[in-house]
Request: fold
Amino acid sequence: MPSSNPSRLWIGGLAAAIVVILLGAFVAGPGRGMRTDIAAQREDVDAQRALVAKQAELVAQQLHVVQQQLDVARRQLEIAEQQRQIGQRQLEMTEETLRIQRELLGIARQTLEEVKEINRKTPRSPAPTPVGG
Reply:
């Protein structure tokens, strides 16, 4: 039996080596896949980070444009207010001019009536006779 014992040891060692190799392959295989997954996720996270940074940059640019539009709108409002004030003053001046014109028309009518009255009350002078005739 001593001769069968070394072959059993050899077979047992071989079996143990195969088990170790299989365990190593089992552990290394999924481990390699996990490392690949982690690397892919890291690339995805980096790409997402770059995308978020670009989006933040675009939002900042949009906010700048919106601020410029707001500044323009405020200036337009100021101009419109100035134009409204000028229009209001023009209206007031036109109304004052119209009031003065109506007053002058009343004075002109009154003057005309007084002239007519004076003409009715004043006798007409005879026509002058030509000299040397």
